[in-house]
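Message: A physicist's question: would you kindly supply an amino acid chain plus fold tokens?
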Amino acid sequence: MTEEKYPVFQGLMTAADERWSDGGDLHGKNYNDFVRALDKRQGQAILLGNLNYQIGNGGFRQWVDNGYGTEINNVIEVLEEVGTANAHKVIEMLEMLKSFLRKGAENKGCFSTYWIQEETTEECSECGGSGYIQEEEEDEEGNINESEERCSNCHGSGLCEGPEEDSPEGLEIAERYDHEYYAMNAQFLDEIEAFFKGEPLQKVEIMPKVLELRKPKVKLVGTDGNAFSILGKVRQALKMAKYPKEKIEEFTKEATKGDYNELLATCMKWADVC
């Protein structure tokens, strides 16, 4: 993005960045406070400019990993004001990504975690993944007797909790959106320049979409077969997948009306259990 092609947009960004640089009146503020302290047009330009630069340089994932996604709600507000079809496409992308981002996080650059973390599993170190511990015992006559007991560390599953990782589903969606964003980028930037120039834009009225509910993935490692833990994990997963409250209550009612096996069956009906 050059100042020759987008003089107003880039000019607003440059002016804002100078205020954040050494000697500027906003120098030393963290990114979130810096954005809030700018006047409206400079703030809008910084939000959209960083969105575009980060995605162009390393995709939506870089925009999130460098902390700029902490202002996602404000970016959406600006895009709603731009109001074009392309702006609404970007809003749809951001709204989907929101469910995979930590709420209330502050921008600490690339030294923080902004994605919701998901549990991983790894082979149990105690039993080597077999789920059982082989034991040898010598009897009074000197004979060696072998026995096999369920591993107390993994409770016979062969798997234990591994390190948490950024939501794989969120990363996959971010990568898919990169290509869509690149395809519309040139026209989108022209529209943003026109927006800052105050030129008329062809705005569109977007009707609210019927929420398409995706089946969330749920890992039950660590629940130790506890019905309340299993129920809680699936409820949380449905909440993160943006299921409305009445749907979550519908799941809860269905999952608790029978025995343990019916609970598991209901969980597998509403979520991808692994």
User: Anything to note?
Assistant: DSSP finds nine helices and six strands in the chain. Residues 168-197 form the longest helix (30 residues).
